[in-house]
Write a structure and sequence with these properties.
Layout lengths: L2 H4 L4 E5 L3 H13 L3 E5 L2 H11 L3 E5 L7 H10 L5 E5 L4 H13 L3 E6 L5 H7 L21 H9 L3 E10 L5 E12 L3 E3 L10 H24 L5 E6 L1 H4 L2 H5 L12 E5 L8 H13 L3 E7 L6 H6 L4 E4 L1 H4 L6 H16 L3 E4 L8 H7 L3 E2 L13 H7 L3 H8 L8
Parallel strand pairs: 1-2, 1-3, 3-4, 4-5, 7-9, 9-10, 10-11, 11-12, 12-13, 13-14
Antiparallel strand pairs: 6-7, 6-14, 7-8
Length: 409
C-alpha cells in the first residue's frame, strides 16, 4: 500500500441513504486517488470523523434525523478542518442554504453535486484539494493568528492592497476598481481577508480601513498621472465612518480632478439604526463621496433606505449572479434589482461574474457594471495600467470565445 493510501487525510467518508449512489461515488473517488468509507448512520460517521480526521466528508442532504444542517453544526462542533461536499436530492435553494450555513460555521465547503454524480464534475470540485494534505489556509488551532501578530502586521505595514477590476458594460472597458486587503505574511505568504479580518478589534479595524484608504488613494493618484482615471471603491463599516480622521483622508488628495471615490457600506448590524445610517450617508454626501450598497438583497438594504439615502450604486450579491443560468429565481431577482436601480438612476454592479458568457444577460437585464474572477482576478496596483491599456473589451472576449447573449433561464 502506498503512502497516500495509508494517509487518513486521503480518506473520504460518504454519508447517504442511497447505497447505489454511494457505490458509484466510492468508485469515482477511487479513480481520483481517494479511499472511501460508506455510512448510513450519521452518528457512526461523526464518530469516525472524530477518530481519524478524514480529508473529505461527502454528505447527502436527505437525512431527517438528524437533518443535514444539524449534521453540519455537529461537524463544526467537532472542529472538523477537512472539506465538506454536499450531495443533492433536494431543491437547489435548500442545498445553497446548507452550503452557506456550513461556511458561516467555519467549515470548508465544496458546494453541492446533483445525483447521479458525474466523474468530470467531481474531479472539478476536488480540483483544489491536495490529496494527503490539509486544506490550504486552514488553521490547526483557534485562533489562527493572535492579537499580537495582527498588531505587529499593522505596525510593519505587512497588509497590502490588491484591486478587483470593474468593467462598464456600455463600453466593455475597465472603469473602476475595488480595493481589497491582503496580508503579505513573511512566512505563510499572501493571506486572504477571511482569515484575519474577523479577529480584528474595533480599533484595529478602523486603523486598517484608514491604511487601505490611504494606500488606495496613493495608487489611484499614480494611475491618474499615467492618464488613467478609474473610480475607486473601498469597503468600510459604519463604525469606521464615524471617525473624523477617515473622512479627512479624501480631502488630502492632490491637485486635479480626482476620480470618484465610492464607500461600500458592509457592516449590517451597525446600519440597523436608521438614524445612524442616515447620518453616515449624509456625511459622506456632504464630503463629496459616493455610497454603494454592498451585497444588495442579502444585507441591511431595504426599499425605504433606497428612497431616503443619497445612494449612487447597488451591488447585486454574487450569490444571485453566480447561479444566474441555473436558477430562474436568481435571474428574476437580478433583473428586478437592475430595473429598480435603473429607474432610480443608480449604477448597478453585478458581483461574482464567473464567465464572460454571463455578461450579455446581465447587460440585457440592465446592469451597468460587472466584476468577478471570470473577467479578472484581483491584481496588484502596478498591473492596473497595463490591464486598462491592453485588455480586450468584454464584447471582444465574448466574440472570441463564441459566447452568445443567451436567454433568461
Amino acid at each position: 500500500m502506498d503512502d497516500l493510501a495509508r494517509d487518513p487525510r486521503a480518506l473520504a467518508l460518504v454519508l447517504d441513504e442511497d447505497p447505489d449512489a454511494a457505490a458509484i461515488l466510492s468508485l469515482q473517488l477511487h479513480v481520483l486517488g481517494m479511499q472511501s468509507r460508506y455510512y448510513r448512520c450519521a452518528m457512526a460517521m461523526l464518530d469516525e470523523v472524530a477518530s481519524c480526521r478524514p480529508q473529505l466528508v461527502v454528505m447527502g442532504l436527505e437525512f431527517a434525523d438528524p437533518d443535514s444542517i444539524a449534521l453540519l453544526r455537529l461537524l463544526a462542533e467537532q472542529e472538523y478542518r477537512g472539506w465538506v461536499l454536499l450531495l443533492g436530492g433536494v431543491e437547489p435553494k435548500i442545498a445553497r442554504i446548507a452550503e452557506r450555513v456550513g461556511q458561516t460555521l467555519g467549515l470548508q465547503m465544496l458546494g453541492s453535486l446533483d445525483k447521479p454524480m458525474r466523474l468530470t464534475e467531481l474531479r472539478e470540485r476536488l480540483g483544489s484539494l491536495r490529496l494527503g494534505s490539509q486544506p490550504p489556509g486552514v488553521p490547526c488551532t483557534e485562533p489562527f493568528f493572535s492579537a499580537a501578530e495582527l498588531e505587529g502586521a499593522l505596525a510593519r505595514r505587512e497588509l497590502t492592497v490588491h484591486y478587483q477590476p470593474q468593467f462598464e458594460l456600455a463600453t466593455g472597458r475597465l472603469s473602476g476598481v475595488e480595493a481589497l486587503v491582503r496580508w503579505a505574511h513573511p512566512e505563510i505568504g499572501l493571506i486572504g481577508p477571511a482569515n484575519f479580518l474577523p479577529l480584528l478589534t474595533a480599533g484595529q479595524s478602523r486603523r486598517l480601513t484608514g491604511y487601505v484608504l490611504e494606500q488606495a488613494l496613493a495608487d489611484a493618484g499614480g494611475w491618474q498621472r499615467q492618464g488613467l482615471a478609474l473610480s475607486l471603491s473601498v469597503n468600510v463599516t459604519a463604525d469606521d465612518l464615524m471617525s473624523p480622521d477617515l473622512l479627512a483622508l479624501p480631502r488630502q488628495r492632490g491637485p486635479g480632478e480626482p476620480p470618484p471615490l465610492v464607500f461600500e457600506i458592509t457592516e449590517t448590524a451597525a446600519m440597523d439604526d436608521e438614524l445612524l445610517g442616515s447620518e453616515i450617508a449624509a456625511r459622506l454626501h456632504l464630503n463629496g463621496l459616493e455610497i454603494s450598497v454592498d451585497d444588495f438583497g442579502v444585507g441591511f438594504s431595504s426599499l425605504s433606505r433606497l428612497q431616503m439615502l443619497p445612494i449612487s450604486e447597488l451591488k447585486v450579491d454574487r450569490s444571485f449572479v453566480s447561479h444566474l443560468h441555473e436558477d430562474a429565481q436568481d435571474a428574476a431577482i437580478v433583473e428586478a434589482v437592475a430595473l429598480l436601480g435603473r429607474r432610480l438612476g443608480l449604477r448597478v454592479v453585478a458581483e461574482g461574474v464567473e464567465a464572460p458568457e454571463g455578461v450579455a444577460l446581465l447587460e440585457r437585464f440592465g446592469c451597468t457594471h460587472v466584476q468577478g474572477f471570470g473577467l479578472s482576478r484581483p491584481v496588484a496596483a502596478e498591473a492596473i495600467p497595463p490591464l486598462a491599456r491592453t485588455q480586450l473589451s468584454i464584447r471582444e472576449r465574448m466574440a472570441a470565445s463564441g459566447a452568445s447573449a443567451g436567454i433568461t433561464p
